[in-house]
Write a structure and sequence with these properties.
376 residues; mainly alpha; Arc Repressor Mutant, subunit A; 2 domains; 66% helix; 0% strand
Length: 376
């Protein structure tokens, strides 16, 4: 019964994606993946019940499907994290293991129905080497793509701190858990029978449906705005920025930015003026690109100045300003009637946990401990 539920959920989620307007490439990959999950679960269900023996030519159709799950997970993570799959040859390279399973299984596929049944009933008789290859390649591929996906997600979580001041809904923790769950399924496949594995697959489908269907494209607005801003300056001189880091320790991503000391000094001055006069950091969804647009500079140059002059990434820089503003507001007698969290929201924080994290990071104390110390 649980298998049937999983099949219907996968089909239902596929239909939801089909009728979704303005589907992104990530949505299309997820659509293909859900279709594959539905078909794979169906084929394994009829094999589990024995119904497949009434349609022997369906036996073995699922041989190469498990590898495709890992590939599609990786492709989905690539798209969601803003890494476009534009090279067809690389896409085809990822499909080579799947194609190898199909090609090597041709001698089996050309068998008659009775012969296929005989192979299945006798534990793969005549295809022992193929089964060994299958049993090694599938779990290995699943684990590799899970780890690969986790690495991409980790890089994404670091990179968004250079672009966004609020990362609460952009860290893709759900996708990280999905990748871990997928890896666990392949570990289970080593020790347990098919029934346990496909129970875990049903749970995985539920997880995808709950979190993945309405996943937003995190980088869309950022990319559109960046295209409108052309890089300033063409110099490749490696200058030492005043108050910042010596050119010898400049990170590789800034080596060819064209930013010189005079430009950096001007950007730093304009930035400090803007944040003091407009308190722009109170916008909880402030991004590096939006701030660069207001300063009329390229985002890469602004990011470099914040990193090297302020010694922080964009995320920590903006949240440090928010903490300073919070301390200022919370210290005023007329604001004692407000709760700390309401003042934190006014300063640009979107969640209590993010506020508490940055407050302790900056002061070494919780908000309550900090103000109790002041009052004493």
């Amino acid at each position: 019964m649980f298998f049937i539920i999983g099949i219907f959920i996968a089909v239902f989620l596929t239909l939801l994606l089909l009728i979704k307007k303005n589907k992104s490439r990530a949505d299309k990959i997820l659509l293909i993946w859900l279709l594959l999950l539905a078909l794979h679960q169906f084929l394994n269900y009829i094999l589990f019940t024995g119904e497949a023996y009434n349609y022997p030519h369906l036996l073995g159709v699922q041989f190469s499907m498990p590898i495709l799950h890992g590939v599609l997970l990786y492709f989905y993570v690539m798209e969601i994290t803003g890494n476009k799959l534009n090279n067809r040859w690389i896409v085809l390279l990822h499909l080579v293991p799947t194609l190898s399973l199909i090609l090597l299984a041709i001698p089996y596929y050309i068998l008659s129905g009775e012969q296929k049944i005989n192979v299945f009933e006798n534990d793969g008789i005549g295809f022992e080497l193929y089964i060994i290859y299958l049993n090694i390649l599938i779990p290995l591929s699943g684990l590799i793509y899970s780890v690969w996906s986790l690495i991409l997600i980790r890089k994404h979580q670091k990179s968004i701190q250079d672009r966004f001041s609020n990362t609460d809904k952009k860290e893709l923790q759900w996708l990280r858990y999905l990748s871990i769950g997928y890896a666990i399924i392949w570990v289970l496949s080593i020790f347990f029978e098919s029934e346990t594995i496909f129970t875990a697959v049903v749970i995985l489908v539920l997880f995808i449906g709950f979190f993945g269907i309405n996943q937003l494209n995190i980088f869309y607005s950022t990319i559109v705005l960046e295209k409108k801003l052309e890089p300033q300056g063409t110099s490749n001189k490696k200058e030492t920025i005043k108050g910042g880091v010596n050119a010898k320790t400049t990170t590789e991503k800034y080596e060819k930015s064209g930013l010189n000391e005079e430009m950096a000094s001007q950007i730093s001055t304009d930035l400090n003026t803007l944040v003091k006069e407009n308190t722009i950091y109170k916008n909880e969804e402030l991004t590096l690109v939006e701030l660069a647009k207001q300063l009329q500079v390229h985002p890469n140059h602004l990011s470099q100045v914040i990193n090297e002059v302020e010694g922080k990434n964009f995320y920590n820089y903006i949240n440090a300003l928010r903490i300073n503003e919070f301390i200022k507001l919370a210290s005023l007698p007329e604001n004692q009637k407000y709760t700390m969290i309401s003042l934190a929201y006014d300063c640009g924080f979107s969640t209590k946990s993010t506020f508490n994290k940055h407050f302790k990071l900056q002061t070494g104390k919780t908000p309550t401990e900090f103000f109790n110390t002041l009052s004493n």
